[in-house]
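Co-fold these.
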Amino acid sequence: MTKVHSGLKALSKLALGGFIAAAMSVQASAADDGPIRIGVMAKFAQINGAAILNGATQAVEEINSAGGVKGRKIELIQYDDQGSASDATLAFQRAVRQDQVSAMVGTFLSEIAITLTPWAARLKVPYIVTGAGADQVGKLVHDNYPAYKYVFRTILPASSTADGVCQSVSDLAVKQLKYKRAVLMTEDAAWTKSYDEALKTCLPQHGLDVAETIKVATDTSDFTPIFQKIEAMKADVIVTGVGIIGNKPVVQWANQQVPMLLMGYNAQAGASSFWKETSGATQGLVTFTAASQDSALTPKTVPFGEAYLKRFSTTPAAHSYATYDAIYLLKNAIEKAGKTDADAIVTELEKADFVGASGRIVFQGPNDPLTHDMKFGKDFVTGVAIQWQDGKQVAVWPSDIAKNKIAFPAFVNSAPK
Amino acid sequence: MLIQVIVSGLLISAIYALATTGFTLLYGVSGILNLAHGTTLAASGIATWYLMGTAQLNPLLAIALGTLTGVAIGLLTFVLIIRPLRTLMKLSVADEHVFMLVATLLWTIILQEALSYLFGDVPVSVPQLVPGIVEIFGVRTPISSVLVAGLSWCVIAALWFYVSKTRSGQTILAASINPKGLTLCGVNLNAVHIVVWAIYGGLAGLAGVLVAMILGVSPSGGLELTATAFSIVVLGGLGSVGGTLIAANLIGFIETGTAYLISPSVRTLPALIILIIVLYVRPQGLFGRR
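Predicted complex below.
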């Protein structure tokens, strides 16, 4: 009786195993033939989130109209994180477990990207950060490699952005305008920690004394005391680092006619809609960004910018370039891997040497300090500095690409103090 | 430094005063703490920005329509949220307070989401009416900020004149003191509330336009504006217009002084600490409550 019972048990186990194997085979077959799902996440109602979504949409539409990824279409699934880490974590889990995305792209806030990095490792899904710049993301991947190998980034990390800002400010403010004294004004957020440190070291090395570093809360509404304090320091230029509070300091700088240039990095000023939102107060602002419509960093930069403007009625911001390139990197990786297996995609991304719209993208390796961040500098991604002049963004740096010179708003003193 | 603190403090206090007068007036007469206050301000500012920028309307017409947006939202809040709750649900006074707070909080989320959907959740700024700067005791100040401060005090003065010197205003004052007595005198209390909500909307609407001109507004920034208004009226005494005006100046000067003397990143902190101390020592606020 016992033998009969155990025999039946073994038979039922075999049958169940066979059923599961058959079901998995059918599911795998369906997954291999159907569209490739890629999730895009950000707060889409904000200027940077919209830039991420638009960049992804542009790339997916182009790829699908050109035949897809080896015949398979890409299905872009949107996840609005509402700027909240808890919402983002839930959406990320849903994307992988329920919607079965093959990869995730996006995220504007560094705090969210830092939260999601371990989740990408736990869920074993390739995750390309295209908006958040805190160095901690690359450091996390470095310190926890290979567990965290699934996380890559196609937006420059804060230290590389600081490097680009330092080089552009050095060429424009020190060499061209003979400025000697700056004030560093940055928002109080995760990404500005490494940004501040890098600039406080780099700017004095290039001959620009940093009189003071002023940290600004992201909910600051009145910048009057800040600007008056800066003016009292007799600085020649304000070097900014703002991503979340892009609009208010710019508008109040113009309204209060603060007589010195705003340079540095303003994440929101990269998109042309910024002119409308500030009612033109951004006239004269200089910001470092990934690329601009008039800067042919690669053969893809200008065509992408033109197609994007036609499609979305605004110019691409840095995050648009980053997300657009991220989708193409995933396409190439899946094609080379021949499958959507996460580890295979990661292996191909690590080997990538891709000329995108923002430059030549090669990722740093496991032994580099910011693993899976893009290599920065000549022959790789360099970025440009643009200035708002009469409603248009024009490239003013680097000199081999930029066709325009710095122009001064009427209230700004061009001469050093 | 002292001159800078005084000049900047006066300008920001004037905007705070105008932005909170309607809020406290509404509480004084209706007993409603409208948590959709900040979003009403933001909606008016965003409407003006849109009408002036995208629709290219004459600036004064855009400002007038932006202010009317505040009136419209004020009346909608009364008609869609407040009146149905009062008439359809027979709530006790204590329950009514809680229901009104929850209802106006939900209403502000609806308004915020609608604004985000229509315009995006981005800060926007209304162009200055008069560009340029003026020196006040050596402190360079935008002309628009001075005009906004002057206009704010003029509107507050006009409100004082209306409430204390006109028959309609006296009726509102009576409604805030003894609403039942007013009803016994044959006055339609519902009509009084409609007038009060319209005045509230007008004050909030104009304040929203001016805030958008000087500081900028965004849909998600509405709750922050409500929190500032809430702090000021609690400090001054709920329902006390005079207390609110003094508290607006106190908060404005404390915040400005903190930004200048300590750090801009902690500018709201001392005012909040003082608020907590006042609540411990004098829970009815500095100048009593309704």
